[in-house]
Amino acid sequence: MIKIYIANLGKYNEGCMVGEWFELPYSGEEWDKLLKDIDINKKYEEFFIADVDCEISSISKSISEYSNITELNELAERLESLEKWEVDKFSAITESEHYSIEDLVNITYNLDCWELYPDVKDDEDLGEYFFYELQAIEISDKVVGYFNFERYCSDIHLNSWSGSYTTYGYICQVSNMR
Asked: Do 77 and 23 meet the contact criterion of CB atoms below 8 Å apart?
């Protein structure tokens, strides 16, 4: 899910790009082999992340040249352990804000603090969800056609229901992270 291009900093400073794509999560042996392959040794001790390839854009935005490889590996392990619907929830949570890698790892442990409504894409959908699924108010079937779900949703937002629309649906935080 997360691939990073690790490059030899010393060789790069000499005008030569020496590096390899590396898939996370990794084992210690794989990491040692990569460092040997890109000529990290006593002469060239430093490396950097030159590029990122990740399905989740928020992760790509959070990785910098010198991101902590151990934290990135932990994030990759956590994401690998999640079900698809949990990855979708994680993606929705992180879509509109910038997070540190440490925060992203923490979110994977606290997914239950958010609710994702995948079929809700706008205020009208959210109003219908509250009306039909939660049965927040009762109206005769004869009158439902005249009901303005979008305005109803605006009232819901005014009464402290807050969240955001994402490409994965509507996401809202329901409790604080631990």
From this structure: no
What is the DSSP pairing of strand 164-166 with strand 114-117? unpaired
Cβ atoms 25, 73 nearer than 8 A? yes
> How much is the pTM?
0.83
Q: Is the dihedral of CA 56, 99, 104, 165 positive or negative?
A: negative
User: Is the preceding peptide bond at 118 cis, omega within 30 degrees of 0?
Assistant: no
Instruction: State both tokens at 160.
Output: 């402290």
Determine the Cα–Cα distance for residues 77 and 13; give it in Å rounded to an integer. Answer: 32
Give the per-residue SS3 of the chain: CEEEEEEEHHHHHCCCCCEEEEEECCCHHHHHHHHHHCCCCCCCCCEEEEEEEECCHHHHHHCCCCCCHHHHHHHHHHHHHCCHHHHHHHHHHHCCCCCCHHHHHHHHHCHHHEEEECCCCCHHHHHHHHHHHCCCCCCCCCCHHHCCHHHHHHHHHHCCCCCEEECCEEEEECCCCC
pLDDT per residue over 100-158, tens digit each?
999 999 999 999 999 999 998 988 888 777 777 666 566 666 666 666 666 766 666 55
